[in-house]
């Protein structure tokens, strides 16, 4: 399994010192995140990704290539031995809390009250509780209780 692609300082990063900007440079378009979401939900083949997302073949080809180059997906021979499949790497699986948090934000802000939507549940069928960042002492954190320490 190859590690994520690392860019040299001063390369094409949007904001070289910001982890949020670098993450968005790697996975910040909707198709990439939807491919990662579907990989987390068991999609493995090109056909499955296309069926689930409705993405055009050329765009899907590009996103699968980029996600593989960036170390978020890897290809392996499917158990049938007849074709290649895509699976998440450790770096791809590390996006799970990002996808969950984005989903939960969408549940709160992108749907009208009572509007039908899918629900993320655990292995027992229980809805996944809201993710909340906490400090070392367990206190909930938000934009008002944190700050960015700049480099340099």
User: In CATH terms, what is the architecture of the largest domain?
Assistant: Orthogonal Bundle
Which geometry do the CA atoms define?
globular
Distance between the termini: 34 Å
Helix content: 25-40%
| Low-confidence sequence ranges | 1-5
- Spatial sequence of strands, sheet with the most strands: 1-2
How would you classify the helix and strand content by structural class?
mainly alpha
GO molecular function, one term: DNA binding
Keywords: DNA-binding, Plasmid, Transcription, Transcription regulation
Pfam family, one: HxlR
Protein name: Transcriptional regulator
Model description:
This protein has helices spanning 19-27, 30-40, 46-53, 57-69, 90-93, 96-109, and strands at 73-77, 84-88. It has 152 residues and is mainly alpha-helical. The protein folds into 2 domains: 19-94, Winged helix-like DNA-binding domain superfamily/Winged helix DNA-binding domain (Arc Repressor Mutant, subunit A, Orthogonal Bundle), CATH 1.10.10; 95-147, no CATH class. A two-stranded antiparallel sheet has the order 1-2. A hairpin with a 6-residue loop joins β1 and β2. The longest helix is centred in the last third of the chain and has 14 residues, at 96-109. 12% of the residues are buried. The model is unreliable at 1-5 (pLDDT under 50).
